[in-house]
Design brief:
The chain is mostly helical. It contains 11 helices and no strands. Helix 3 crosses helix 4.
Amino acid sequence: MNLLTISYTGTLRDRLKDFFESGFFQSFITSLIIINSVLIGLETSDYVMVHYGEIIDLIDLTILALFSIEIILKLFVYRLNFFKNGWNIFDFMVVAVSLVPAAGSFSIFRALRIVRTLRLLKSIPKLRLIIESLIKSLPSIGWIVVLLSIVFYVYSVIGVNLFGEMYPKYFGDMGKAFYTLFQVMTLESWSSAVARPIIEGVPFAGVFFITFILIATYTTLNIFIAIVVNTMNEVSLKDLKEEEEHIKDFVSDENRKLQLQLNQIQKQLKEISQNMSTPKEYEY
């Protein structure tokens, strides 16, 4: 009885694993996420909630129940390996937050249900590639932030010394200088609101702003893009290699099974040949 139970459980887990990794299941979960996101958006309309509130709440609870069942079954299938995948941990946290009662002091969690939409990042391969690339780019991006901070610090000190007395609104202290330079870096009204008024009083200030924009905006931004693109290529190549390994393993397993079948056929043919070559004795 125990052997049968173990065998059945193993088969069930394998079937569930194949089902979770199937395209149909991924498309189904993606559809649920999209529907749930639309419904959460509709809940912000008083008119919709007055006329269709009960239906929306019922559908929301049904979708949450399906998400919860999904997590429970995945825990059954993958067990502790479930938490070795960062995307699985993310799904677990999203569903856990959704299960917190959205009433009283926990009413904020009702608004946080919209984070379920972020599960689309996992369900859509292209989005997942971008997010994984950004995450793996963080160490290099961190050094870009360090470089940018140094540039900001240098130009802030120069700006305070050159323009602080005449234009305290923009460069009165280091904090104001940092904020002004950040506005200049984003190119948001930097010329009309910041640079031109200062250039009217300090003509050579144009060199200060132009060099800062070239270094902080164009050069640093291009380096940032180059790092992300390079990481995306690395992640894509890694995925291709993993896919090739899966294909090789699959082909190897199929060849092994085919070889076993051929050996069995050869063995059967040999037995048939031996039986046919053995002389039969007839009784008279």
